[in-house]
Design a protein that fits this description.
Elements (H helix, E strand, L loop, with lengths): L4 H10 L3 H20 L5 H10 L5 H12 L4 H26 L26 H16 L2 H23 L5 H38 L1
Helix pairs in contact: 3-7, 4-5, 5-6, 5-8, 6-7, 6-8, 7-8
């Protein structure tokens, strides 16, 4: 982590630039619009429930385990699990420490967060990263017949990302960048997971015959 200190120092300087101020203004306008025009008493509990379903990646972890248990979906579960590990290491372990971005409700005047306040950095969104990492990996690893079902995982990932904005705990750029990075990790996890699955399947087949 010590090697990341110069980068983190550079990010601190970046946060003082006019370019970052423009980004912050764009983020703030979107979050305040959602708060003032979209939030309501009916949607609040729904959005909170969806966003909390991904706390600590629990929804995607459980889904990955279930897919691993079922023989026909084992490849999807393996790719999803690999992608989730990458998400934890890269997004939560590295990027959050490098960017060390303060949460939006701490700097945007008038913005209220309607869930428990976070104690870690804002960028990128861990919930969004885990969601896209798992969902895209599952979709890529599914066969043609299953894709009409697995596409709903990606839809859910988009909804999770939106809830992070709705509740006021992340900037739009946190969510957008998390989705992009996680999609890249999912593609990598798909290729690694597919190769690993083939190796394991062959090894298991030989043991079964023996």
């Amino acid at each position: 982590m010590l090697g990341l200190l110069p980068i983190a120092a550079g990010m601190a300087a970046f946060y003082e630039t006019s370019f970052y101020e423009a980004i912050l203004n764009w983020d703030a306008n979107i979050l305040l619009f959602l708060q003032n025009n979209v939030r309501n008493d009916v949607l609040d509990p729904i959005m909170k429930a969806i966003t909390h379903s991904v706390d600590k990646g629990i929804f995607w972890i459980v889904l990955s385990v279930l897919l691993l248990i079922i023989p026909k979906t084992r490849k999807m579960g393996l790719c999803s699990a690999i992608s989730l590990v990458l998400s934890i290491v890269i997004c939560n372990g590295i990027l959050k420490n490098v960017f060390d971005r303060i949460r939006p409700y701490e700097v945007i005047d008038g913005l209220k967060c309607i869930v428990k306040l976070a104690d870690d950095a804002s960028f990128p969104s861990g919930h969004t990263s885990a969601s896209f990492a798992s969902a895209v990996a599952i979709f890529l690893a599914s066969d043609r017949k299953m894709k009409k079902f697995t596409v709903w995982a990606i839809v859910y990932a988009f909804i999770v990302g939106f809830t992070r904005l709705y509740v006021g705990i992340h900037y739009p750029t946190d969510v957008i960048c998390a989705a992009i990075v996680a999609t890249g990790m999912a593609i990598l996890a798909y290729f690694v997971g597919s190769k690993l699955y083939e190796v394991l399947a062959k090894a298991f087949s030989k043991k079964k015959k023996a």
